[in-house]
Amino acid sequence: MWEAIRANRRRSILLIALMGLVLITLGAAIGLYAGTEFSRLQFRPSGDEPLQGGLLGGAAAGLLWLVLWLVAVYQGDQVLLRSAHAREIRKVDHPRLWNIVEEMTIAAGLPNMPRIYLIADTNPNAFAVGRTPEKAAVAVTSGLLRLLDRDELQGVIAHELGHIRNFDIRFMTIAAVLVASVEIISRGFLHGGARSGRALSASGSGGGGGGGKGSGKGFPAPLLAIVVVLIVLSPILVRLLYLATSRWREYLADASAARFTRYPEGLASALEKITAWHSQSVPPDTSEALAALCIVNPVERLLSSLYSTHPPTEKRIKILRSMGGRAGYVDYEAALQKIESANIRLAALDAAAHAEGSIAARTASGGVEGVESDIDRARQVGDLVDRLANYVVVPCTCGMRIKLPPEAKLDRVECPRCGLWHQVPAAEPDPAPDNAAAPEPAALPLIAQGENTSWHYERRDAGWESFRCVCGQTIQLGPEYPLDYTVCANCNRRIDLKNRPATAPAA
């Protein structure tokens, strides 16, 4: 497998260098055009402006490529996670997801368990980012957690950890940033050039317009036409470079998922459900750079497979289900050759395939989840999304859970089901000493730091619960919270926790 990883690294370096070359060529082309325009507008042009512009444009593009490369390598994962509005979660937030990532980390032989992020989005999807396997992250949407059972979610996580194990994440993160940069630069130039079409025409013809004698020294029209063609084709070329390997990396990640889980049907069923969900919904508002990282690209349903960042999902499912009850790398490669009707070899599989050989697949774990499990899964994910959004949850005796957003500054709330009124959970001042009158809560300053007043909150039970600090900040308490006090993240006020259960039930 180490030979496969080294080969993957070499190809990644080559492709990133080629993308950088395309970006520099694009910058030089824009510089040539700008130099030609500058030369045409000069009263006494020297004739060197086009060449100087090209050199300057190429140098500027090279500097831009270096900056983008550094940003993508060292901060690309955070940029992509922030753009997706992802929030990091812990084991107590979603034990099932945490345990699956932990299991697949061990199966993949990764040195560290990747950080786990949740995206509050009904679109079911997942992606992995990072610079190295030691500093990787996996992000899943709330829609994915609602949709998939354990075996299916395990297959998706194993696919993403396959990208991490195969060192795809660094290339995919850098490539996504460079592809987006080239497209933005090209579109920006063409948009600006469309407004100056007359200037382009005058420059290309070498006559007319206030250039006087200098207008004849403009850049030759045929070469200028080549420059414009380069500007138009650069984003297409850099995307084709990206597509040259991205689709085969998806096949390799699918093969890795089958090997790590030893259950190819789990990933096949997950892909089938995700594709069915996308076919019945409006494409989400996701950037192309981020969509290309997802296990199923959510914005390219209408594109032909030639311009797609992923292989056809139907083909991926068919390959996984053609492995004949086996789960090894060689079994996946044999199924791929059978579906493609050609002697196709995934070079990155060779080292691992010859070392391991064929592996028997396992059976499904735990049977089929029923309707009740689906409801419980949806409720668990909904509660997690509410906690990450800092909602205050007010439980009613009728079973209704009233959820108040942080901006709702209500002291009391009515249950919409039974009409019972509830006090919104909040920190309360400790009783004053016997020789002093207890202050009225309404008379306390909203932003007081609590120097002269102690605060407490009486816990309702040992599960998840939320309440408000006197400053208005929502505070979440989990079932495994170990302390008898908490500190508000907004005003640093200490709040003692009263009637805390002696033992907390397992999550």
Task: Tell me what you see in this structure.
Helix content is 50%, strand content 11%. It is an alpha+beta fold. It has 3 domains: 2-82 and 171-243, no CATH class; 92-159 and 246-356, 2-Layer Sandwich (Zincin-like), CATH 3.30.2010; 378-498, no CATH class. It has helices spanning 2-41, 49-83, 95-108, 142-147, 150-165, 168-195, 197-205, 221-261, 264-279, 288-291, 313-320, 329-340, 350-356, 371-388; strands at residues 86-88, 115-119, 126-130, 136-141, 392-395, 401-404, 412-414, 421-423, 428-429, 455-458, 465-468, 474-477, 485-487, 494-498. Helix 2 (49-83) packs across helix 6. The chain contains 14 helices and 14 strands.
List the defining traits of the structure above.
507 residues; alpha+beta; four-stranded mixed sheet; 14 helices
Q: Care to give the gist of this entry?
A:
The chain is α+β, with helices and mostly antiparallel strands. Helix content is 50%, strand content 11%. The two termini are 37 Å apart.
How does the SSE layout of this entry go?
Layout: H1 2-41, H2 49-83, E1 86-88, H3 95-108, E2 115-119, E3 126-130, E4 136-141, H4 142-147, H5 150-165, H6 168-195, H7 197-205, H8 221-261, H9 264-279, H10 288-291, H11 313-320, H12 329-340, H13 350-356, H14 371-388, E5 392-395, E6 401-404, E7 412-414, E8 421-423, E9 428-429, E10 455-458, E11 465-468, E12 474-477, E13 485-487, E14 494-498
Parallel strand pairs: 2-4, 10-14
Antiparallel strand pairs: 1-2, 3-4, 5-6, 7-8, 9-10, 11-12, 13-14
What's the helix-strand series?
Answer: HHEHEEEHHHHHHHHHHHEEEEEEEEEE
Helix content percent band? 40-55%
Major sheet? 4 strands, mixed
Helix run count: 14
Beta-strand residue percentage: 5-15%
Q: Can you identify the CATH class of the largest domain?
A: Alpha Beta
**Mean pLDDT across all amino acids:** 78
CATH superfamily assignment of the largest domain?
Metalloproteases ("zincins"), catalytic domain
CATH-derived topology of the largest domain: Zincin-like
Estimated radius of gyration? 29 Å
Count of spatially separate domains: 3
Question: Structural class of the secondary elements?
Answer: alpha+beta
Distance between the termini: 37 Å
Strand order of the largest sheet: 1-2-4-3
Shape: globular
Low-confidence stretches: 197-218, 442-450
CATH architecture designation of the largest domain? 2-Layer Sandwich
Oligomerization status of the protein chains: single chain
Number of strands: 14
